Amino acid sequence: MLHYRTVPVTAFAQNCSIVWCGATRDAAVIDPGGDLARIEEEVQALGVKLKAIWLTHAHIDHAGGTAELSARRGLPIVGPHPGDQFWIDGIAEQGRMFGFPQVAPFTPTRWLHDGDTVQIGQCVLDVRHCPGHTPGHVVFHSRQAQRAFVGDVLFAGSIGRTDFPGGNHAQLISSIRERLWPMGDDTVFIPGHGPESSFGEERRHNPYVRG
């Protein structure tokens, strides 16, 4: 069974998630935006073995710690979709703009595409490409655990911003309705910021995408 622990990091209170397989204790970290000491303390406290970095997208608060953590731990970088290459290319400049120390660009070990899967231990998660917030945004979905790690696509009561370069409001709405809702109303999602919710709750009540 898939387990996870959410660790808010950076001044943006970004929800970094440590996910692990209960059988093997192998783990991945989703969106290590920064505060790496805090993330590594949590990994140690959980007693899991960090094997990979998974990225939903390449905005600084989600990917700022990626290069350093990968180099320090020898971890493969999985994701996002190639549409976010320009965000990776400019991540050092993003870091300077927002006061993130020692941010470096990186090359993903593996780009992700719609319909791919990722695996940690015995747990397999589906990958859905959900552009709109960024062109290369992906979501990780565990059917078994009925959990989805959605980055900045959807929030409890809100949706991701689309006013950044490469953002597209109509595309974001389409991603939510065509790629998230079919995962099922009972699926709980872990957003990039703020509290968890379920797709059913948002489909019924979120003013941006209900109905």
Explain what this protein looks like in three dimensions.
This is MBL fold metallo-hydrolase. Residues 13-193 form the Metallo-beta-lactamase domain. Its cofactor is Zn(2+). Keywords: Hydrolase, Metal-binding, Zinc. It comes from Ottowia flava. By secondary structure, this protein is of the alpha+beta class. The chain has a single domain, classed as 4-Layer Sandwich (Metallo-beta-lactamase, Chain A), CATH 3.60.15.10. Helices cover 26% and strands 28% of the residues. It has helices spanning 36-46, 60-63, 66-73, 85-89, 91-98, 169-180, 199-205, and strands spanning 2-9, 14-21, 26-30, 49-54, 77-78, 117-120, 123-129, 138-142, 147-151, 154-155, 158-159, 188-191, 197-198. The strands form three sheets. A six-stranded mixed beta sheet has the order 6-7-8-9-12-13. A five-stranded mixed beta sheet has the order 1-2-3-4-5, covered by helices on one side. A two-stranded antiparallel ribbon has the order 10-11. A hairpin with a 5-residue loop joins strand 12 (188-191) and strand 13.
